[in-house]
Task: structure prediction
Amino acid sequence: MNSPKQPISVLVVIHTPDLDVLLLERAAHPGFWQSVTGSREGDEALLATACREVGEETGIQLPGECFHDWALTNTYEIFAEWRHRYAPGVSENTEHVFSLCLPSRCDITPSPHEHRAWQWLHWREAAERCFSWSNRDAILMLPQRHPKGT
Result:
């Protein structure tokens, strides 16, 4: 049996300098679009979690210095259907927000057991497509966090 997931996760908004955002559609939930997300494993640093999750979910392998830690956390209630993955009594998750700016749109290799499709969208359209309020809010902050050309 696998050990319970930690209620500590990362959200990584992958985007271009023109603020096109990569979204992934969850395999188990068609229509649920999101950025890269994932739980911390063991005692790994949150930056290591962000790097690992991006690699696992997209095939993009980049060092930690390419990622931007927003020093922003969100706490939200874990959907009831996913609580069995956590220790008994755990109902909330703390999410740490990161971003990764790539030079341009690129093809990815999604994890087929996690995601069924992917697409690049302009940041406003990407925000509207997200099912998660925290993901939507992070994308809406992109113009302030990463002005065009930075």
Remarks:
- The mean pLDDT is 94.
- The chain has three helices and seven strands.
